[in-house]
């Protein structure tokens, strides 16, 4: 489509009017700015499955387990939540570089696992690894 300049009907203006293009681009930019923060809130995660990794330091470690009934075990020996911290403190006193491996059943509520992690941290353990199933 050609436009005339008004002087002479044979002169044709070959420039494109970019005002509508700029208007459309500004509207799109505003739409993207408003919707981008909303897209970040829809993150879905599945923690129990990860890829296989090698331990960083193969030192002596203690395994703390939480089964499906929220029972706590230290190396296959059942302990109470209140007794977990003192028992780990005594082990840390003999070996300050103790590494603790935590494994929890997939169906255990997060609250129970968080309490176990808090007790492990208060006992003075500085190396904690969380064990998961391979296949993520």
TrEMBL record:
InterPro entries for this protein: ExbD
Residues spanning the membrane: 20-39
Superkingdom in the source lineage: Bacteria
Keywords: Cell inner membrane, Cell membrane, Membrane, Protein transport, Transmembrane, Transmembrane helix, Transport
Locations listed in the record: Cell inner membrane; Cell membrane
Keyword Cell inner membrane included in the entry's annotation: yes
UniProt KW Ribosomal protein keyword: no
Quaternary structure and partners: The accessory proteins ExbB and ExbD seem to form a complex with TonB.
Reported function: Involved in the TonB-dependent energy-dependent transport of various receptor-bound substrates.
Similarity comment text for this entry: Belongs to the ExbD/TolR family.
Protein name listed in UniProt: Biopolymer transporter ExbD
């Amino acid at each position: 489509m050609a436009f005339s300049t008004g002087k002479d009907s044979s002169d044709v203006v070959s420039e494109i009017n970019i005002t509508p293009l700029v208007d459309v681009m500004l509207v799109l930019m505003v739409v993207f700015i408003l919707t981008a923060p909303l897209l970040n809130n829809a993150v879905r995660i599945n923690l129990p499955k990860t890829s296989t990794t090698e331990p960083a330091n193969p030192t002596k470690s203690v395994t703390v387990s939480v089964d499906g009934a929220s029972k706590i075990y230290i190396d296959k020996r059942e302990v109470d939540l209140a007794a977990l911290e003192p028992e780990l403190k005594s082990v840390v006193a003999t070996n300050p570089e103790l590494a603790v491996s935590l494994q929890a059943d997939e169906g255990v509520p997060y609250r129970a696992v968080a309490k176990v992690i808090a007790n492990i941290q208060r006992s003075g353990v500085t190396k904690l690894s969380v064990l998961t199933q391979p296949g993520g």
